[in-house]
Amino acid sequence: MPLFKTITVDEGTKVFIWKVEETYEWLAEGVELTEHCQQRVDGMKSEIHRRGFMSIRHLMAEAGYKDHDLYYDDHGKPHLRDDKYISITHSFNFTAIIVSNKDVGIDIEKQREKILKIANKFTPLDEYHTLANEDALIRKLTIVWGAKESVYKILAEPGCGFLQHINVIDFDFDDYKTTTHVRYNGIDRWFDVKFMEFENFTCVYAMPSKSKAKA
């Protein structure tokens, strides 16, 4: 199928989401990869990873880019060769990119019970005692993880801990947004975060805050 969803966040920022249902052969048809990216996809053992990788190249085409317009720095952060910023994510059969004129991060996660087992490694669990049931807790923790992952992708700062250094301000599901604060190694920054849910997946994206929020 073509694009699953396109979101215009603001004048200079767009999100593109793909639901991966096509074969690898269909997705690879007509796509020219750099030598580095060809080696990466050739080395992938998982078929869904290979299909996801190629679907991202279709998302880039939707945004007006080819694989040769993309490169990665020493921290593995993707960059475009023009003056735009890009962030990339994939989870199972969904992939997404965000392209902007400001630094951005994006994350897609499948809502899974597994997150309950690792939650205390990335957020203080006592903050969520008011949630009605386990499903609501899984949803909220997935949003919190996605917010922290998205912000971490922007910073690409080794050693920055999800639990110790990145704080997500509490929110309601109906808000579809929150703010996140990072204090680490001289960094003291706020980020605006938006989220959405579909087909038991959560998509979260972050960008520098327009105004300094108060915790």
Secondary structure elements and pairings:
Blueprint: E1 3-10, E2 13-19, H1 24-28, H2 35-42, H3 47-62, E3 70-72, E4 78-80, E5 85-91, E6 94-100, E7 105-110, H4 115-118, H5 134-155, H6 162-165, E8 166-168, E9 177-184, E10 187-198, E11 201-208
Antiparallel strand pairs: 1-2, 2-6, 3-4, 5-6, 7-11, 8-9, 9-10, 10-11
- Per the principal axes of the C-alpha atoms, what is the gross shape? globular
What is the number of domains?
2
One letter per element, helices H and strands E, the order comes to: EEHHHEEEEEHHHEEEE
CATH topology of the largest domain: Ribosomal Protein L22, Chain A
Please state the second-level CATH architecture of the largest domain.
Alpha-Beta Complex
> What is the structural class?
alpha+beta
Given as residue ranges, the uncertain stretches (5+ residues, pLDDT < 50) are none
Biggest β-sheet description = 5 strands, antiparallel
Q: Strands across the major sheet, in which order?
A: 7-11-10-9-8
Helix content: 25-40%
CATH class of the largest domain: Alpha Beta
Average pLDDT taken over every residue: 93
Keywords: Transferase
Pfam families: ACPS (PF01648)
Domain 4'-phosphopantetheinyl transferase: 104-182
GO molecular function: holo-[acyl-carrier-protein] synthase activity; magnesium ion binding
